[in-house]
Structure formats: structure tokens, C-alpha cells
Amino acid sequence: MGAQFLADYLKPKNLWLSNPTWGAHPLIWERAGYTINQKWYVYYNFNDDSFDFDGMVKCLQAESSPGNVVILHAAAHNPTGLGPTKDQWKVIADLCVQLQLFPLFDSA
């Protein structure tokens, strides 16, 4: 429902998904009926099995545009189980405001 609502009213050019993400996220947005570019932000460091906070921030700063939607996992990121600290969430919130991104939270 959130994807359909945002596709209809916000009409974002880009949707940002974490790499990796829950497999249904891309499909949900495809079914919203609009052509929205699906892009991937850095989330997981495959070298040491950790959350790549710096990579995420740098990717969104360099490549996102105002009005883009960014999918965030509220807790227990699917499929990694890793998530930001309280201080990192504050930075992510500030980043969304600064870059004019629309955060959509997946809360399982």
C-alpha cells in the first residue's frame, strides 16, 4: 500500500533499496504500476559481515536526488539482521532531510 501511494502521489524518479534487501521489495514496486528506477545503496560489507554505514551515506550523498524514496528496515534488516546504532539512525534521519529523500520503513 505504501509503494502504491507513493508511486501515485510522490511519483519518485528513483527508489533506493539496500544491497542486499528482502526479495519482495523490488517486486512490490514493480506492481505499483509505474516505471521507477530501482537503485541500490551500499548496506552490507561482504568482506567482514558488517553494516557498511559509511558506504551507505556516501552512496546516497553521491547518487540520490530530491524526492527519491529510500527503503529502510526499522529493525532486524532482512536478510542480514544488521542495523544502525541509535547515533547512526540520527545521521540517516538528518541525511534524509538534507537530501530531501522520502524514507519508507519496512517494519517486520
From TrEMBL:
<dbReference type="InterPro" id="IPR000796">
    <property type="entry name" value="Asp_trans"/>
</dbReference>
<keyword id="KW-0663">Pyridoxal phosphate</keyword>
<dbReference type="InterPro" id="IPR004839">
    <property type="entry name" value="Aminotransferase_I/II_large"/>
</dbReference>
<dbReference type="InterPro" id="IPR015424">
    <property type="entry name" value="PyrdxlP-dep_Trfase"/>
</dbReference>
<feature type="domain" description="Aminotransferase class I/classII large">
    <location>
        <begin position="4"/>
        <end position="108"/>
    </location>
</feature>
<protein>
    <recommendedName>
        <fullName>Aminotransferase class I/classII large domain-containing protein</fullName>
    </recommendedName>
</protein>
<comment type="subunit">
    <text>Homodimer.</text>
</comment>
<dbReference type="GO" id="GO:0006532">
    <property type="term" value="P:aspartate biosynthetic process"/>
</dbReference>
<dbReference type="InterPro" id="IPR015421">
    <property type="entry name" value="PyrdxlP-dep_Trfase_major"/>
</dbReference>
<keyword id="KW-0808">Transferase</keyword>
<keyword id="KW-0032">Aminotransferase</keyword>
<dbReference type="GO" id="GO:0005829">
    <property type="term" value="C:cytosol"/>
</dbReference>
<dbReference type="GO" id="GO:0030170">
    <property type="term" value="F:pyridoxal phosphate binding"/>
</dbReference>
<dbReference type="GO" id="GO:0004069">
    <property type="term" value="F:L-aspartate:2-oxoglutarate aminotransferase activity"/>
</dbReference>
<dbReference type="Pfam" id="PF00155">
    <property type="entry name" value="Aminotran_1_2"/>
</dbReference>
